[in-house]
Specification:
It contains one helix and eight strands. It is mostly beta strands and about 170 residues long. A hairpin with a 7-residue loop joins strand 1 and strand 2. The chain is globular, with a radius of gyration of 19 Å. It starts with a helix and ends with a strand.
Length: about 170
């Protein structure tokens, strides 16, 4: 009987080890089951918007996302990556991954959406070189300004502070 409890404890430990670090997220932005977490970081920075013609093609002006600019740190506060236009992330080892939005959910109407991105390009050898999926969750801030974009301000940039957690996944081989 004692061995049963030992085996049960080991099984529970291994199950926790395999799921540890993978965040609980809404179904719309869950990663497939055949991936493993290779890097996570807490981002702090800005979403940069430009006052320009709205993407819808009409003559309305709107704050349009130009690029993010953020630093990602691990739980100890050590920098692990930079985030910039593309959207692209570059790890401190020099490897890069560029993503494309696959899905989004907006749990906080006052913050930018949570995202699931798929990798579309890589460069360099390192932790990000085999990433296939990226999640952005726990966002705070970063939304485009609600007003202030008019003919008088066309072409101006606005930096909006934000924070988020990013999770990077590779395929299970």
């Amino acid at each position: 009987m004692r061995w049963f409890f030992v085996l049960l404890f080991i099984a529970m430990f291994l199950q926790n080890a395999f799921t540890q670090g993978v965040p609980a997220v809404p179904d719309g932005i869950k990663v497939p089951g055949d991936v493993k977490l290779v890097l996570q970081g807490h981002a702090s920075g800005d979403q940069i918007y430009v006052c320009q013609a709205a993407p819808s093609g009409n003559s309305q002006l709107a704050w349009v996302l130009s690029a993010p600019e953020a630093t990602l740190v691990d739980q100890a506060g050590t920098e692990v990556a930079k985030h910039f236009a593309g959207p692209t992330w570059q790890a401190i080892d020099g490897s890069q991954v560029k993503g494309k939005v696959a899905a989004q959910v907006a749990p906080d109407p006052d913050s930018i959406p949570w995202l699931l991105l798929t990798a579309v390009d890589h460069s360099g050898a390192g932790v990000l070189s085999d990433v296939v999926a990226i999640q952005r969750i726990n966002t705070k801030g970063g939304k485009a300004p609600a007003n202030g974009c008019d003919a008088q301000h066309q072409g101006e940039k606005m930096r909006v502070p934000y924070t988020a957690d990013y999770y990077f996944y590779t395929s299970v081989k």
